[in-house]
Design brief:
Radius of gyration: 16 Å
Helix content: over 70%
Strand content: under 5%
Distance between the termini: 42 Å
Number of helices: 10
Structural class: mainly alpha
Number of strands: 0
Shape: globular
Number of domains: 1
Largest sheet: none
Length: 199
C-alpha cells in the first residue's frame, strides 16, 4: 500500500519539539523528590519509571508516576489532534514524546523504558489500538505475572493492531519504531528472563 502524503510544516516542527520537551519531564524523579523518596535512578532497578517507583515508594507514588508518564504521551498528541494535524504530524508528535521519556534533555538524556508514555501517546493517536494493547498486557500479566513480558508482548503486537484497527501506513511505521525501541530498552529484562531471574 502507498504511504500517505507527507506535509512537514512549521506547526509540525513546533508540536514535535513541544512533545519532546513535555516527554522529557520525569514523573518518577519529580514524584519521588516531592514525596521525599529515594531517587529512582539510584535505587531499585535504577530506572525512573512506575514499576521501580512501586518498589521503592509504594502504590501511591507509583500510581502518580504512571499517570504522569501516560499524560506525557497523551497530551501532546491531543494538542496536535485539536489542531487538525495529519497522521504524519501525529506520528512525529507521539514518537517525540516517547523519545523525550527515553532520552530526557532535562535529566542528562537518561530516562525510563517508556511503556506508559508510549501507551499514552498511542491512546491519543488511536484509542482502539491502546485498548487492544491494554487487554494484551493484562492477559499476559495475569498468565505469567511478569510485568516486562507483558510490556514486550504488547509492544510487539502494536504494529499489528494498528494495521488491523487503523490502517494508516504512517502510523504503522510509527508503531514499528516505538515497538523496536521499547524492546531494545528492555534488553536487560529479556536477558534476565532467559536466565530465569526476572522478577
Amino acid at each position: 500500500m502507498p504511504i500517505e502524503p507527507i506535509s512537514f510544516t512549521l506547526t509540525t516542527l513546533v508540536l514535535t519539539l513541544v512533545a519532546y520537551l513535555f516527554g522529557s519531564i520525569s514523573a518518577a524523579i519529580i514524584t519521588c523528590k516531592v514525596m521525599g523518596l529515594p531517587d529512582p535512578r539510584t535505587e531499585g532497578s535504577n530506572n525512573p519509571g512506575a514499576t521501580n517507583v512501586l518498589r521503592i515508594g509504594g502504590k501511591k507514588a507509583a500510581a502518580i508516576t504512571l499517570v504522569g508518564d501516560m499524560l506525557k504521551g497523551l497530551l501532546p498528541v491531543l494538542l496536535a489532534m485539536a489542531l487538525n494535524s495529519d497522521d504524519f504530524t501525529l506520528a512525529l508528535v507521539a514518537s517525540a514524546a516517547f523519545l523525550g521519556h527515553l532520552y530526557p534533555v532535562f535529566f542528562g538524556f537518561k530516562g525510563g523504558k517508556g511503556v506508559a508514555t508510549a501507551f499514552g501517546a498511542i491512546a491519543g493517536v488511536c484509542w482502539p489500538v491502546a485498548l487492544a494493547m491494554l487487554v494484551t498486557w493484562l492477559a499476559v500479566a495475569y498468565g505469567l505475572k511478569i510485568s516486562s513480558m507483558s510490556a514486550l508482548v504488547s509492544a510487539a503486537l502494536a504494529p499489528i493492531y494498528f494495521w488491523w484497527l487503523n490502517g494508516s501506513n504512517i502510523l504503522i511505521i510509527m508503531a514499528v519504531f516505538i515497538s523496536m525501541l521499547l524492546i531494545w530498552r528492555h534488553r536487560s529484562n529479556i536477558q534476565r528472563m532467559l536466565e530465569g531471574t526476572e522478577k
